[in-house]
């Protein structure tokens, strides 16, 4: 086994190498740290930590409520959340274990043994078979092909499906290489392998390196030595540390919790102060029926004040909704299944459905402002198709496998082939690195003769692989063309001058069949998917000089790149132009429509790609990212800071003038400006002129970044993510080079490419095609956001309704800390009585039909900027809760305040009956309030809404009708039965509920009539004929009350609809238009 040394400038001895274990999913827990770490994470949440403190206070001091009222809900929340997070982390462990536990074959003690991928060590010789993935970064030692090469695809790394050729290195005692580094896109990966064999130095470049994640193709098997393993592999080094993503809704929840904590402290402090103010009079400080003990008289006033403050804190603690977190967790977890069940996100050809890797970010899909997308494999299929060519000024196109001059058909006679056209076709047929794979198992590979089959090529039994998809498209077009048979000759390949981004060309040097001369055919990349073809003839003396220059440059150990460039420039000169070809890069289906829909939704799309400038611009134009009428600003090939500053200042001035002279362009959402920037210029702009660059980008409708390294993509995303506006970002890609970008963005989406799953494993969501992004954001994102936003606001509302009467009650009991509700009601209010309706609402609610959301992308703007969780909306729900609480309490007080003999037999009601009346009105009102907010009714909504009210009545009758032996006191015995036996109580319940909800109905009607939102207008246009007719009648009616009544009918009545739920299509539904 070869020994490997890692050379550094400060360390010359051998290092200890890491195991071949990767953590793509970056899980949080192990079996040992799950309990302590999960508890630590959960108690970092404000509500959980607060209830833990309250629970401990209840254990330590005498409080008005039992510790069970806080401990039981806290235990329930912690347990459910731990199960959910543990399950999701187990899925991450499972995904990584599949990769690290994959079977591989390595050479141990001279024999081939099977082991697991995680057991590979640096220096091990690994055998990889055809169509297998390389388990580590390997240097190729041997191949079964006669020429010592193998072919690989890197689709899982960069999305490119074209074939790449890797050459063997000569085996020797030592292989030395540089320390691991993340740079993949450089010409030699910045790591040079040097093999010492008989004191002969051989430089090795990227053509000898097999990257982890790539796949072996068109080769039966290879052997390679492991040089980088585990997290030191190129693919792993291009990952960034994955941070815990938190949604904007969760941040808003924490802000609201702090505000409610302030309200709680205010109520507790005020109650404590008023208690001592009231007890300043002796008759209230120590009444005759409640004499103090000697210990109480001698206790410290400060300690008494603190004890009373903590007691009030416990009494009012339910204003903080502890069950909010667990309900949100359940909503996210259960709601995430709907994405996988959506048949519109299912790709039939590849049999792939949408996948959810984390459910914590569902609502973020409805808040996206910037989309950063890869190009190759994400917007395009990376499949090239030959369309036309130009030879000697004549334009040809392919018709039925023939090259036909423009204006002619394939039925026209072929005629003779001029010399220049023949030379052009020869150049295209020979200047490439295409490899052939045979379908028959007996066909020779590598060193075999491809012409031994049936008089030449048999396209029915051959498959072509190429390092460039353009080359493959051209060769396949020439195979289809009948003109290829005109020059079925043998040529000897002498040299290949590989393509690089600086020269933008590749060349081959061939020896003609006559052997008299050598000639190169060069393909120059000049512009879009256009290839310019040229040639040059060499005499034997010229070739000897060329061969000497090439060998000297390729064996150089210092300044190798510069010497190679000089040699290539020396050879590729005095070229004779032959013609040009046009190749089309096939876009994915409906990419242009998807980008346009995102733009109409107010989402800016950035394309970040590693491709060259010309190709990237070409694809941007074809997919609709750029329009032909757009002003394209270019910031390219800048290596020093001064020109970058000048260009940015010029761009900024131009954009400012344009926006001032043409203000309507922005209002009408017409694309006007686009920016193209390459990686080198971007690095300078971000390092020295970040604010100016950001200002230019914000004024551009579309931005294209080309020649981007993987970590540069993540840096661009982070730049916008941390900008003062804090926009929500989304990154989408299909290759391992997109992982850093996907992990950095607020929401990361992986495209399920043809090979490899690195982007999918590290993403938050995975879809099969880019076109599915539109529905994922415009429909699912819209639904998830409105559902969880209403859930959060409703939880705060119903807890304000719950605890405010308790606060008001203290004014009538001398702040004695007497509870208004029974402890069982305190415990079950959020867990049982009001939990299911809001959970079901948050799973199925739809303001408008999904088709409307897709057809009208502008509706996405109605929920942007976290509008449904703004402070104004939060204040409305909070004040509404206080108003309803006052009506609950004082409505019941008016009924019972003067006369408590509400029974026919003269029996009186006590304080527990009063509290139960308030509680009953509250449960009914908050449940019906949610019913008014519901637009999309299923049988499950009806079941939990009316079932929750029925369950409360049944439970109260059962709880108060039996003497429970395990309860020390049973204050509620027969209280509920007596309450329901009073007709006055029933009348009060009905009046109070109507008084609370009627203003809400009136408000909704007036707002819909006077200030309807775009979503509300869409509800009217889609929601059935009755709604449209009623609204038209209301508009035409001269009588205000007549119009008011018709609007009431359209806004408040249940209108049966034949529409089905898109997720649960078997459920009958009806629409409540509110």
TrEMBL record:
Segments forming domain P-type ATPase A: 104-233
The keyword Nucleotide-binding is annotated on this UniProt entry: yes
Keywords: ATP-binding, Magnesium, Membrane, Metal-binding, Nucleotide-binding, Translocase, Transmembrane, Transmembrane helix
Major location category of this protein: membrane
Membrane-spanning residues: 16-35, 47-65, 183-202, 255-278, 309-328, 776-797, 824-844, 874-896, 908-931, 943-967, 973-998
Pfam families assigned: E1-E2_ATPase, PhoLip_ATPase_C, PhoLip_ATPase_N
Catalytic reaction(s) noted: ATP + H2O + phospholipidSide 1 = ADP + phosphate + phospholipidSide 2
Active site: residue positions: 374 (4-aspartylphosphate intermediate)
UniProt record, GO biological process: phospholipid translocation
GO cellular component, one term: endoplasmic reticulum
Binding site for Mg(2+): 374, 376, 734, 738
Annotated ranges, domain P-type ATPase C-terminal: 760-1013
Domain of life: Eukaryota
PROSITE patterns the UniProt entry points to: ATPASE_E1_E2
Domain P-type ATPase N-terminal: 28-70
Protein name according to UniProt: Phospholipid-transporting ATPase
Annotated organism of origin: Sander lucioperca (Pike-perch)
